[in-house]
Request: fold
Amino acid sequence: MKIRLKTKKQLLGNVKAYDFEFEEEFIWRAGQYMIAKIDHEPKDLRGKMRFITISSAPHEKVIRITTRFFGKKASSFKKALDSLKIGKHIEIKGPDGDIFIGDFKKNYVFIAGGIGITPFYSILKQLEFEDKMPRIKLLYANKDKKFLFDAFLNDISEKFENFKMFKFISPKKIKPSDIKRLDLNLKKTIFFISGPENMIYKIKLLLNKLGVKDENMKEDYFTGYRKI
Reply:
């Protein structure tokens, strides 16, 4: 289906948000992703399609793409996205992805690296709107003190006792002791991991060593980003 660009907004540093309107019915669960296609030339080796997290919550009635834009160093896809004029269309397919809240009785741990916070932002926005919160602990790793959506996350921490946030600023890494400190039954906890591929790989190894099974880990990979 086609969606139409409604607004562009600069968020924090090199992070930008693009809101799209949809005329056909499009139903997704907060935290899921879609496939986006932007026809453009010349295109680089990664082509004209991307798997992209929907960073808006379903109740907002827009489809939001939130991404880092590196100017001249950006991929041809991101350059095409950023140069898109208001009112122009792109094509999408989906939604898809296993990162969403399915059972409110379970414990959840969200592990985010940098821009990987976007699916969790979508989930938390929807939970705030519905005024309900399962037991969630967020471990948020970033390269500096400028955490995306920081004010919102702090507000959610104050509103809901079930939500706790722990920040990690590079070079500090998430260690096994940080997971153990959460005081959870790890075998009955669902882990959502979102961020650069190398980070997800390391976190999954760490969790496996702590006894967490693969079926209790769900991932959202952000390719093309540097280490956290």
Remarks:
- The longest strand covers residues 2-10.
- The chain has a mean pLDDT of 94.
- The domain at 2-96 is CATH 2.40.30.10 (Elongation Factor Tu (Ef-tu); domain 3).
